[in-house]
Amino acid sequence: MSTISLSALPGQKTVLIIEDDLDVRDAIEGALARVGYQVLTAGNGADALAILRAQPIRPSLILLDWMMPVMDGMGFLGQTASDPRYASIPIVVVSAVTRMVRIPTLCVAAVVPKPVRLRTLVEIVDRLCEVTPRGGAGRFEADPELDRVIGSAARPE
């Protein structure tokens, strides 16, 4: 079963997470929300397209899993790349299968292999959303939750 979450507010950077693994989706959503992003979530590409069409707020960035039921990453890219409303939104593919498949790099801003540390993912999102780096001795550096590793090969630390 897929889930759709609509929670975008004007004035904040918004990230759309498209991920069928609920634990991974929740972990990414929590990390991005803790550092100040508004988050939209979908369990597959078809639900994500419905979100894009329903939202008055265009996401600043899309995090896209590659292998999902209903509509996978390739199907989603095919739909968004050909639509001028969405073609300019940066897309980051976050997937455990990045080494086994050919991902069309012309359509994506970055490819991040799973497993991935949440802190690394937040830094990539910050860079692509043009958010000031969060380094230093602040709350970002001291947040142990951001050191969690997520993805299919991740093991509890």
Overview of the structural elements:
This protein has one domain (about 5-150): Rossmann fold. Helix 1 (about 20-35) packs across helix 4 (about 120-130) and helix 2 (about 45-55) runs parallel beside helix 3. The longest helix has 13 residues, at about 20-35. It has a 6-stranded mixed beta sheet, with helices on both faces. Strands 7-8 form a two-stranded antiparallel sheet. The chain is globular, with a radius of gyration of 15 Å. It has 5 helices and 8 strands; from the N terminus they run E-E-H-E-H-E-H-E-E-E-H-H-E. Mean pLDDT is about 80; it is low at about 1-10. The chain is of the alpha/beta class and about 160 residues long. The chain has helices at about 20-35, 45-55, 75-80, 120-130, 140, and strands spanning about 5, 15-20, 40, 60-65, 90-95, 110-115, 115, 150. Helix 1 links the parallel strand 2 (about 15-20) and strand 3 (about 40).
